[in-house]
Amino acid sequence: MKKRLAATLAGIMAAAVCASPALAEGVTINVTTTYAGEDSNAQNFKDSVAAWEEESGNKVEDSSATSDESFKSRIITDFEAGSEPDVLFFFNGVDANQFVEQGKVVSIDEIREEYPDYASNMKDDMLGASPADGVNYSVPVNGYWEGMFVNKEVLEEAGVEVPGNETTWDEFLEMCGKIKDAGYTPIAASLQEIPHYWFEYAIYNFQSAATHNTMPESVDDEYGQAWVDGLNDIKALYEAGYFPENTLTATDAETFQLFTSDKAAFLIDGSWKIGGIAEAVDDIENYTVTHVPGKGDRKTTDEIGGLSMGYYITRKAWDDDEKRDAAVSFVSFMTSDDVVSKFAGVSATALKEGASPDVSEFNSLQNDALAYTASFTGISPAVQDNLSAAAREPIFADMASIVNGDVDAADAVAAVLEANAE
Length: 422
What we know:
- By secondary structure, this protein is α/β, with parallel strands linked by helices.
- 44% of the residues lie in helices and 12% in strands.
């Protein structure tokens, strides 16, 4: 499969290079993405980079890393220090506001003045306009969804069925109780490192697909109260013992291992996790993905998802004549129809012609994911993307204090809103 992919990518790149005869050789560009670690596209990214390097005669200095709060902070620090990469695959929400406002990334419109066909294969209204000024700066590859992965062996041992499209939150709690009584951990999650998946769905359960992405104006309005109620539901899960015993100190890698070693039943994560699960387990058929059970106005089949990331070309690269051509060539290649189709898998894209993944090579988890996405009744972006890294801290960095009862959920939400208003 890797040989076929490399050959296909090489053919695509050869056509791109022929169409851009002015592209210099021997140029090295610095690229940072989140295609690393357990990301299902980490190998696709490496193969694509290798194909572009071979055909263009240029090089990529890759500093990609797994996406988390420390990654976001590192990128912001790099920009502040003037050591930003030439090409960056990053979030297109408020996390990018700082370097958008400082003029350190180049808009798609400006790039098109010199390269008219740049991102011409994409739907402009899906490119992800910056909340800072409403202008498009990034070109997306694949979108995402956040769902609940399931270890079927653990459920079978506990006498529990896989949650379905109609499973309610109360039924889910009953399932967790049976799983715990059977000697397993119901939910694999590190609340000290990545609490955000549970935060999103817990507050979603007090809203709807139409309202979830609405920022509260105060802790007392309906949206602020939804945040408080959601955090209290996470606290209830913690008090019931449904998270790992070390959830407040464990790393994400450690809790992920609980899931893949048949010690935990459920794992909320993104569509990119499919590849990581496939690489970590011997029997992929033991795993599936389903909806996070809902309550209230949120249907169980209403999901978190969207196109939240894309490739940016920095002003630093744009102002360098040689790097400008190489950066545009690289992004154009990485966002071509064929390459995007290989990255997309079971996720959404902004391609005008749509993605065309080769489903003949899908494993059972990928096929389950296709059926899962086909059953979506509503979709909302992650509301956390409306918050800066600093504003998220009172909840994300201090989740332990909230679930321990040391910090009241309402006080934590108030602190987030206050920080976000500064």
